[in-house]
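[retry 2/3] phosphoribosylglycinamide formyltransferase 1: previous attempt timed out, resubmitting with same input.
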Amino acid sequence: KRIAVLASGRGSNFQAIIDKVSDGTIPAEIVCLITDNPSAYAIERAGNHNIPVSVISFSDYPDREQYNQALEKTMIKCGADLFVLAGYMRLLKPETVRTFSGKMINIHPALLPSFSGLHAQKQALDYGVKIAGCTVHFVDEGMDTGPIILQSPVVVLNNDTEDSLAERIMEFEHQALPHAVKLFCEDRLEIDGRRVIVHDTPS
Ligand code: GRF
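[retry 2/3] phosphoribosylglycinamide formyltransferase 1: success.
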């Protein structure tokens, strides 16, 4: 399978996928990194593994529509079977989501549907939950609302800060996202309405 990754920042989730592709855990090749941030460290990570990079920066386009068109054209050109949003901080327009329906997944640092959107770890801490976590889901036209593939629980400790909790959740993200990518690449995910069925063998 061919994987494209979309990232906006440090790219540690992107790196986790690179590592699992390199060691053969994920039967796929990463065909490109797409980023909206020319200074994303994810670009360095791609360079270390000779992964082609496309920078589609919002400020390079006169308006949102042209930005979206450039992004969708780039995604189609890279011909991936799966698009992984790994810390990609922009919403994709509904038409793009429909174009890649069932072929795009996202990692969110909370147990959805709780705490969608930004600063999810802080939302969890401020709410006072005892269990936080992360979610890997298919992308639909909402924000963080698509069918859930995997979730990992993370205990919140008395002395947790936003940073300490985010760091602990991140460790689970680096396991959950590559595992979800592996399941997709092995054709073991079946979307049944809102539910995702995980098969033991290719379905
Ligand atoms: C991760 O916490 C991810 O869940 C969220 O943004 C962060 C990206 O981190 N969407 P990185 O760029 O993968 O290090």
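[retry 2/3] phosphoribosylglycinamide formyltransferase 1: The chain has a mean pLDDT of 97.
[retry 2/3] clearing retry counter.
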